[in-house]
């Protein structure tokens, strides 16, 4: 595993540890994956920003996989390179 992959794992675990489970209402709705923002794959991921500037929520496994693929597929053709700034508008 390369250093970037290791850091992504650390970032994800800092905000969405495996010990954290979805509340019953979320599980009932099929939202069992913790999803974090800023993205774990970014330099701002994990706990690098104060808690007031980051968020996590529960999403379905399909939504989590689809969003991850969309981010990757957006970055490649737009040539967003390592350390390039970008904005996310939700």
From TrEMBL:
InterPro entries: DNase_NucA_NucB. This is Deoxyribonuclease NucA/NucB. Residues 53-70 have a biased composition (Polar residues). Residues 5-88 form the Deoxyribonuclease NucA/NucB domain. Residues 1-29, 45-71 are annotated as: Disordered. It comes from the Bacteria. Pfam families: DNase_NucA_NucB (PF14040).
């Amino acid at each position: 595993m390369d250093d970037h992959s290791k850091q992504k794992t650390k970032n994800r675990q800092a905000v969405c540890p495996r010990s954290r489970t979805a509340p019953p209402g979320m599980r009932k709705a099929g939202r069992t994956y913790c999803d974090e923002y800023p993205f774990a794959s970014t330099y701002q991921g994990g706990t690098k920003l104060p808690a007031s500037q980051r968020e996590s929520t529960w999403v379905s496994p399909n939504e989590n996989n689809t969003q991850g693929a969309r981010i990757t597929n957006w970055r490649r053709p737009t040539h967003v390179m390592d350390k390039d700034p970008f904005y996310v508008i939700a």
